Amino acid sequence: MNITKLKPAWIDEFKAFALKGNVMDMAVGVIIGGAFGKIVTSLVGDIIMPLVSVLTGGTKDLAGLAWKISDTEDAAVVKYGAFCQTVLDFLIISLSIFFAIKLLCSFRAKQKEEEAPEADTASEDILLLREIRDALKKGE
Known about the structure:
Largest sheet: 2 strands, antiparallel
Number of domains: 1
Number of helices: 5
C-alpha cells in the first residue's frame, strides 16, 4: 500500500504555504511584537505614568479617572481616564515601532552599501550607447 496516495493534496499545499518566508517572518513578528508590548507596558506604567502623576496631582493610573453623570447608584460613568491611558499607550508603541523600523532601515542601507560592487554598475548596453554618443559628438 502506497502511503502517499492516502495523503490529501491539500497537505502539500498547506506545507508550502506555511513554510513560505512571508508567513514565517509574520510569525516571528507577532512573537516579537508580543514581547515588545510587555516592554512598552512596563515603560508606560513604571516610568512615564509616575511622571504624569506629578502633573495630575498624584494620580498614577489614568484609567481610574472617570466622570459620573449623576449621583445616583445606577448613574452612567464616562471613563475618560481609560481612554487617555489607551491613547498614551498607542502613541508610545507607535513611536517606538517607528524608531525601531527607522533604525532597522539604516542598518539595511549600510549593509547594501557594503555589499554593492565598487565597479561601474552600468550595463554593457549603456556603455555602448555612451561610446556611440561620444563618437557622434566628435564627428560633428
